[in-house]
Design a protein that fits this description.
- The protein has one domain.
- It is mainly β.
- The chain contains two helices and five strands; from the N terminus they run βββββαα.
- The chain has a three-stranded antiparallel sheet, with no helix packed on it.
- The protein has helices at 80-83, 88-91; strands spanning 16-18, 29-34, 42-47, 58-65, 68-73.
- Strand 4 and strand 5 form a beta hairpin.
Amino acid sequence: MALSIAGPSNPSVGPFVKEDKFIASSDYLLCAVRLTEGQLPSIYLARGSEWNETNDHLHYNPNGGASGAYYEMRFAAKYAVALRSNLLENYVETLR
């Protein structure tokens, strides 16, 4: 499992999982805790199978960076509305 931590200077950086550790299945659950200075922590959930659907805020980068391909949950402001569905308090109903 990869851990990405964004400091106060860049709160739009999202968590990612390297391709070799990610499973695109409904049995795989990504949990991301977003820590933003001056705010309560936010918890986001997403099934691995959701990256098989068209979701701009759930992104697969096949070219990746120096460390290779990865799956990410995008926290940039333009994805704020889409991310709401993945907040723990909204998402928990889909797990039943």
